[in-house]
Amino acid sequence: MTLKDKLIKRIFDVFAAFFGLLFSTPIIIVAWAVAAVDTKSNGFFVQLRVGMSGKLIKIIKIKTMKNTALHRSSITTESVTSITNSGVFFRKYKIDELPQLWNVLKGDMSFVGPRPDVPGYADVLTEDDCIILTVRPGITGPASIKYKNEEELLLGQVNPKQYNDEVIWPDKVNINKKYIKDYTFINDVKYIIQTIRG
């Protein structure tokens, strides 16, 4: 990815995130209130993730689960089924992702890129895999699209963490490396459209 690519990508992110927040703020407020009632807690889910250059960032989403301590390394049948009724709706229509427009606007994230992961994954990459940390993590991307049903996939495994660590994570790393090495702005637009279409 060239300096020009990064500049065009950032300009797009700023303008799209600004207008996205302008129009989606009422939706975010309503979703936050519904999630707060459903989970009996703050309707926002805030979690530390690994961002560009290995810097820790706080991502913001609409809370969709009663068990907000859930992360990929501790997925269980019980925790996955604790998704709230509103959470099912929010996830289906990507409403839970809307608050991340703020992350994009402030420069922590991009619309498209590797998903920001919990510590213990992206921050321990080595050698040429570290290229993933040279770009801002994204709300969506080729790996996110391929594994959009990741939780359901992990549910079917005897050892979800082992399957994630040995199969899904390495595949995501390879997909994200290819995304960065073969980057074009047109591909970003395609990934955004694919994500919206579901």
Automatic annotation (TrEMBL):
InterPro entries xref list: Bact_transf (IPR003362)
Transmembrane segments: 12-35
Enzyme's top EC category: transferase
Superkingdom per UniProt: Bacteria
Enzyme nomenclature, EC number: 2.7.8.6
Keywords in alphabetical order: Membrane, Transferase, Transmembrane, Transmembrane helix
Bacterial sugar transferase domain sequence ranges: 9-197
UniProt similarity note: Belongs to the bacterial sugar transferase family.
Any GO molecular function: undecaprenyl-phosphate galactose phosphotransferase activity
Protein name: Undecaprenyl-phosphate galactose phosphotransferase. By similarity
